[in-house]
């Protein structure tokens, strides 16, 4: 029981006032009766009956004052406060904020085959984006919601876990050009269904369906929208369903970060742009993909030029694109324009405080600026927003090492060690995750297990330059210099050309006096 809330309600219904008034009146009656009754030779038992009646009347008056109020218009039933109003008076703004919170759970994909998760996830994100600009509504972030895709918790438990009163969930069935979307809005506190709808149509109807669902939520929660919020609710990034679909598929591959997946993302973003040349989102995605290709796989300047050009085009069509600014931050990071990169990432965060990629780029900027305390805060924010973005674990470890914070370094290593097994169970084909888990196991002294995980990562992508480079770092750390140099040579042959990074990578410091290592980077 919330005792503060209960006491506040007792005060509002004037129960305390009634109780005190009654006790004072009863005391006066008892005192007067004790003096007056003997004068009129009233039998002694009458006094006992009177006292008994006064005692019985006390709980009766408490119940009466809880249920009824005395007003100038007479006696009437006390009105119950709406839950938000009661919470505001008794628990403060934080409780009111929680009562207005909505979580949009990932729509369950029930389509034939298993290759359309990107579409159901995209639908979830689009609805969240539409609703996120409404001031009266606190909505769980996209990445937070996505973590509950495969959750076994019931709706009520999910609401408690997310601190959300309202839950939107549903299913998506996509078969070629036909779509069927079912939705249900639940009031967790009342354990009641507010509404449920089924929408059927073609792919071209998906934008109209998204709008209908968003407006239905607004109406059900009785939210008051400003003219600006109404306009944002109706805004469509593109009217071309094929461009929209290609952009969603590209985003799915973008976060895998291997060379083959990034090149596939580039092709799909290009397809989206060709379908709708004024669609900002695929330009921003193209910029991020090309920036990552340049940084980790191929130092050909064409990728960096394409990344910058695409980010600027995205900003032409959508000046408030958070994704375009964070991608531009990556471009400037690789151009060593640190101040410009910092401005771009901060701009990205100002437009979308849930943009985990912007925090990640800014954290890396802080690290090379020797502002590791700020970098740590950003890396932790990345994991808070998107716990599956495991690159942040490695970044955190490097910052704690630099600060010589052994306690937090060990905590981060142990945190990563508990994360990777469950993640790899869900994503067994993530070669980078196998490798990062290997580094974590190596730090814990579990070298044999670490070798096995590293082998799995290499086996899945044996020609990917970043995968092979990671292997070179791993073997250097465990003292196998021959294997390290062999993998480093393969990484360079496959396109890894960031020689400055190789020279300053602490994982490879142990090789600096090795003749074969010196020969590899000489005159580069």
Automatic annotation (TrEMBL):
What the entry lists under SMART domains is as follows: TPR (SM00028)
Q: Sorted alphabetically, which InterPro entries does this protein's record hold?
A: TPR-like_helical_dom_sf, TPR_rpt, Ycf3
Domain of life from the UniProt record: Bacteria
UniProt key word Manganese: no
Signal peptide region: none
Transmembrane stretches, start-end: 20-40, 46-68
Which residue ranges contain the repeat TPR? 322-355
Q: Which UniProt keywords apply?
A: Membrane, Repeat, TPR repeat, Transmembrane, Transmembrane helix
> Which Gene3D superfamilies does the UniProt entry name for this protein?
Tetratricopeptide repeat domain, TolB, N-terminal domain
PANTHER family in the cross-refs: TETRATRICOPEPTIDE REPEAT PROTEIN 6, UDP-N-ACETYLGLUCOSAMINE--PEPTIDE N-ACETYLGLUCOSAMINYLTRANSFERASE SPINDLY-RELATED
Per its record, how is this protein called by name? Tetratricopeptide repeat protein
Q: Which organism is it from?
A: Lentiprolixibacter aurantiacus
């Amino acid at each position: 029981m919330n005792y503060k809330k209960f006491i506040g309600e007792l005060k509002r219904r004037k129960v305390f006032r009634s109780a005190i008034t009654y006790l004072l009146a009863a005391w006066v009656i008892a005192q007067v009766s004790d003096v007056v009754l003997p004068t009129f030779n009233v039998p002694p038992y009458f006094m006992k009956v009177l006292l008994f009646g006064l005692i019985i009347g006390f709980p009766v008056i408490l119940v009466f004052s809880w249920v009824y109020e005395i007003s100038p218009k007479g006696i009437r039933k006390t009105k119950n406060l709406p839950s938000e109003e009661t919470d505001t008076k008794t628990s403060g703004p934080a409780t009111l904020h929680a009562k207005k919170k909505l979580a949009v759970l990932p729509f369950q994909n029930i389509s034939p085959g298993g290759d359309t998760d990107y579409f159901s996830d995209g639908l979830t994100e689009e609805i969240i984006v539409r609703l996120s600009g409404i001031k009266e509504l606190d909505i769980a972030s996209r990445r937070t919601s996505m973590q509950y895709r495969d959750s076994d918790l019931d709706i009520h438990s999910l609401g408690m876990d997310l601190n959300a009163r309202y839950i939107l969930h549903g299913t998506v069935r996509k078969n070629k050009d036909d779509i069927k979307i079912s939705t249900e809005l639940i009031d967790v506190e009342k354990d009641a269904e507010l509404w449920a709808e089924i929408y059927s149509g073609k792919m071209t109807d998906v934008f109209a369906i998204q709008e209908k669902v968003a407006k239905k939520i607004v109406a059900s929660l009785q939210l008051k929208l400003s003219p600006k919020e109404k306009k944002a609710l109706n805004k469509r990034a593109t009217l071309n369903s094929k461009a929209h679909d290609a952009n969603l598929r590209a985003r799915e591959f973008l976060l895998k970060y291997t060379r083959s997946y990034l090149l596939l993302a580039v092709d799909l973003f290009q397809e989206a742009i060709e379908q709708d040349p004024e669609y900002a989102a695929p330009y921003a995605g193209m910029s991020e993909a090309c920036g990552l290709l340049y940084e980790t796989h191929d130092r050909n300047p064409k990728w960096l030029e394409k990344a910058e050009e695409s980010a600027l085009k995205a900003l032409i069509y959508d000046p408030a694109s958070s994704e375009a600014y964070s991608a531009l931050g990556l471009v400037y990071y690789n151009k060593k324009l640190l101040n410009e990169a910092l401005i771009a990432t901060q701009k990205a965060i100002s437009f979308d405080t849930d943009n985990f990629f912007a925090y990640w780029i800014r954290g890396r900027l802080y690290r090379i600026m020797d502002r590791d305390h700020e970098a740590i805060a950003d890396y932790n924010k990345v994991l808070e927003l998107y716990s599956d973005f495991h690159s942040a674990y490695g970044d955190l470890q490097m910052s704690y090492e630099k600060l010589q914070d052994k306690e937090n370094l060990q905590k981060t290593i142990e945190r990563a060690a508990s994360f990777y097994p469950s993640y790899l169970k869900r994503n067994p084909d993530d070669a980078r995750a196998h490798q990062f888990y290997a580094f974590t196991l190596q730090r814990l002294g579990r070298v044999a297990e670490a070798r096995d995980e590293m082998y799995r990562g290499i086996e899945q992508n044996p020609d990917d330059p970043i995968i092979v480079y990671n292997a070179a770092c791993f073997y250097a750390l465990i003292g196998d210099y021959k294997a390290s140099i062999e993998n480093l040579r393969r990484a360079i042959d496959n396109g890894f050309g960031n020689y400055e990074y190789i020279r300053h990578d602490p994982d490879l410091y142990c090789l600096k006096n090795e003749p074969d290592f010196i020969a590899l980077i000489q005159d580069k």
